[in-house]
Amino acid sequence: MADDTTPLNKYITLPKVELHRHLEGSLRLSTMLDIARKHGVTVPVSMLNLSGLVQVQDKDPLTFSNFLEKFKTLRLFYKSPDVIHRVTREAVEDAARDNVRYLELRFTPVALSRAEGFPLHDVMDWVITSAGEAAKDFNIKVGLIASVNRHESPELAEQVAWLAVEHQKRGLRGLDLAGNEAEFKSAPFHEIFKEAKGSGLRVTIHAGEWGPAENVRDAIENLGAERIGHGVRVLEDESITALAKERGTTFEVCVTSNFQSGVVNELEKHPLPRMLEKGLKVTINTDDPSVSRITLSNEVQLTHEKLNVSMDTLKKSVILAAESSFLPEAEKGELVRSLKSELAV
Prior knowledge:
Elements: H1 2-12, E1 16-22, H2 29-39, H3 47-54, H4 64-74, H5 81-97, E2 100-107, H6 109-114, H7 120-137, E3 141-149, H8 154-166, E4 172-178, H9 190-198, E5 202-207, H10 214-222, E6 227-230, H11 238-247, E7 250-253, H12 255-260, H13 272-277, E8 281-284, H14 289-292, H15 296-305, H16 311-323, H17 329-343
Parallel strand pairs: 1-2, 2-3, 3-4, 4-5, 5-6, 6-7, 7-8
């Protein structure tokens, strides 16, 4: 067994920063079974069968629809305030155990509220409270990002945005637009994001994953994106690649997720190394660690060993992630200095 774990230990000991992890994709299987028993959620009672419903399996079709299907089952579990407190705390604990020093955890208040019709304000409060307590208990810095989906109504997005603005002093750092970019345009959300940014929220946008490179331009120019979630299709248009480089836009790349959801057909041909060659700012992230059955250490290992990205470049990407974080400037400076010293970059 030692032989299996020794190689990964090298990556676990590396201090890390994660900018793109969804709370809803971070639930532990054991916790889901426990919630199912306590709240009468109708799911298979065995770990193995439940895993097939909520985690991508080796034999699964590598498609967007299969990947998204897992979230339909996951949404059944948010049955009480205690559950939301617990899954938030465990997501933070799991990151800390993987030697993540700073985690930006995004969550979708509308998804968390839907199973039991909880008020959005309450859901946001529960996540913020639990994340704050867990950060102290597990000695990790945590920032939160509220996420809204393209297929939901702009009215709901506006509610979430203003609640996020109100909660900035409690560690809510940013606003994210996620969901199906292939079928839903971002135009209905342009003004909401501009206003939120004007009120102090930072902006990250899922773009150039399932939609074309043009969606990356739209995110930067019309939604005020400082960071792009995924963005791997940006290379399809040289002018948009140049725009992203000129603006200093940071890309939150999620290699395993892109492969499992069919965005990239062959893992070894993932565009991440080419994005680096073009001078784009690239960070390594998990997206949905439980759904993908990975940790951030796994992703760093995969990027080094399968995509041939050097350890020196990976260490620089950790510093870049810290510099691209939505932390207040003083805290960010402190984090960057401590990581540079530890990584000897």
